[in-house]
Amino acid sequence: MKALVPVKRVIDYNVKVRVKADGSGVDLANVKMSMNPFDEIAVEEAIRLKEAGKVDEIVAVSIGVKQAQETLRTALAMGADRAILVVATDDVHADIEPLAVAKILKAIVDEEQPGLVLCGKQAIDNDMNATGQMLSALLGWSQATFASEVDVEGNSAKITREVDGGLQTISVKMPAIVTVDLRLNEPRYASLPNIMKAKKKPLDEKSAADYGVDVSPRLEVVKTEEPAQRAAGITVGSVDELIEKLKEAGAV
Amino acid sequence: MDFNLSEDHQLLSNTLNRFLGDNYDIEKRNEAGFTAPYHLQDMWNGLAELGVIGALVSEEKGGFGGSAEDISVVFEELGRSLCVEPMLGTLLALRVLSDHGQDERVEQIISGESRAALAVYEPNMSCDLSAMEATAVEQDGVWRLNGRKSAIYGAPGSDFVVVAAKTESGTGLFFLENPVLICAAMVDGGGVADLVMENTAAECLALDAETSLTSALDLGRIALCAEAVGAMSALQDLTVDYLKQRKQFGTTLSSFQALQHRAVNMQIEIEQCRSIVISAVGQFGQPGGERNVSMAKNLIGRAGRLMSEESIQLHGGIGMTWEYPGAHFAKRLVMIDHQLGDQNDHAMRLIATGAKQLVD
Amino acid sequence: MAVLLLAEVTGGELAMDATAKAVTAAQALGDVTVLAAGASAAAAGDAAAKIAGVSKVLVAEDASLGHRLAEPTAALIASLAGDYEHIVAPATTDAKNILPRVAALLDVMIISDATAVVDGATFERPIYAGNAIQTMKSSDAKKVITFRTANFDAAGEGGSASVETISAADNPGLSEWVENKVAKSDRPELTSAGIVVSGGRGVGSEEDFALIETLADKLGAAVGASRAAVDSGYAANDLQVGQTGKVVAPELYVAVGISGAIQHLAGMKDSKVIVAINKDEEAPIFQVADFGLVADLFDAVPELTQKL
Description:
The complex is a heterotrimer of chains A (252), B (360) and C (308). With 252 residues, chain A is an alpha/beta fold.
């Protein structure tokens, strides 16, 4: 079975985000970019399925700017077999919406015919939490979101999902879309020998037009602002004073 | 010229940054750095698994890199995390071993199976190898070493030491298994050792290895300079964060222009240092490349001291405390100046090589 | 303009708090029709009919609609979509599972985790883990939105909407429920509790996390945890408060031994009153706290529990 893993290039999760002064968005110029952490977990899971003999080829896909090639190299260095880069914009500040991404991915799925698509549950930039579900709808495939355990057995997969109030286990028919949550696994580091091997793995470059998908946004960004700051509070000297203040505030 | 890292180097740097960031916080580092064997075996195994030790040796000699640029990428990240793992000693030993056909031993070191250090320096000797006093003499088919070695970086806990000693043909290299060492932690953490040799039997690797030794030491100096750049930028980040947070007279320190100027000066120093490391890396192995190394080591020695003093000044008292990471970065930067020749030694080396060029 | 609101139904019961908060958000958009879907949903539909501001309730009961499976519920909503301009839900894991699927079936974008309604097409939502707030205007004919409940007050009771029963759409039969592992607890549910007491890495161990639980029980509060505490194994996964966990906005939030990473702040900074107890006075949590106590939690928490 072939596994397809879409990965997104996003601002590194350790970088402090700065809103641009003109309110047009978040400043991404000269900022360290990395693979979306949830997508890294998806790549890791695909590799583990391959190591367990349940997947025989892993194809990583990224859709966005040309620089996303580096993100794909990371996926290849971790253990993906080949990569497809779909250049959909030249502007590093442009975010391709999940709907357009899902349409491009659908076209790629039609071509590649994978048995499983593993993706991150959300990207840490737009926090939309939608691509996997949308792709699943467009393909008419089964979907299992927020996975914390993935168990593929022949024509079905048992997925444990993190839902409000606990965990839910469902069984989905293959082919399926699985979106992964934080605790599914700990992604491996790309070792230097594997980084060198990754250089020789194939990376195809395509454009959104190759798939006939219009990527123009449905949502227009009106403005982007810093969140409202909370007013500074006070420091209390003792537990007694804390209780007194809480009573005054009517909180207890 | 494109000064950005290549894709591979970017990936290598990310891997190391993540690995060290996830597994190596300052408390863990401080505990390891000052307790024998002055490093953490599981971290060392982790670095070996990631192929980072292999990055110090070229592919044809069994490694995964080995260029001056590979080494500077690795050490800059080590500096950023203030890593006390014995990479410098391993780099020096690996380079001379791989220069002398010791493929099996190189392979063992790269895989993390064994660890080695290089004994060159002596109490009365600095950069100038001709001042070396330790000797090696062959008696009845056995090489015997005499003399004292100091500042053997990363030697505590290592499986063997490669010793440089004078032979009749020049500066030879000798292989010493299970050496008896006098071990200590450096003032900034990490292991170092002295070695006293009295008719100590050793295996001869080379009778005259001066070129190989000089090249290994110069790469070690580039490594130290890159490590310093990493440590400086981490220290700068800490300092700027502190200035933005700490309030005095009802406002943050960062709002005072005099302090902004000092922070900018620190940033300029870092950029200078980064540039000179790039130049030393680019010229390594070229004729006269050793001059770029000495220029870098000299500038970084001075800038490192300045950075550590400025950061302590800008922090105030907390900048000196054991609990605050900044203090350890400051110590490391001062120590780097003293390793493999300090700013004065390298100024002298520049004068000497400059004079030689004039004569030639 | 009509709004279709997917009620949060769990095990046949209406999650009143989440649904009522989403009703408040939806009222700003037009006439609210609530859809209660589930294996059994009639009781939930009746409960939803009593929420003030709901004009109509649709009840769809079918075995295929149970157990939060996305495909049948999304198909049902898509089949109803013709009559509505807005399709909305509270931003629970169930709705986040279903609504993006609905949006794609309708060929429109989803707007997740909206925190404010500007007008019928314009919404605010947090991006970058709450480090920025983006105002987005949709050009789609239909808008599919999940609302972050922490940002809206619950609509009151007193409504008397008509209830209509509808049938489910065809079940595509793609997935099946196997089992639930629900954390059993007598404490209030984390996302709707009036008071939350959370512990962080500073608590130090799973055993000492009992300190947090004792204080929570004294206050009648839900228990939360920072990601550091969850990763260290002191607390269960589903207690995690933060961008990648639960987003809460109780009347009172007590953060114990939590340094206040941005990740965590994004999940609790809309709380009405925030108390921080931490021995590190430089901890960022104090910057958002209304009342900060610099103290060793092992002294302060038992004292607080005893004196309350």
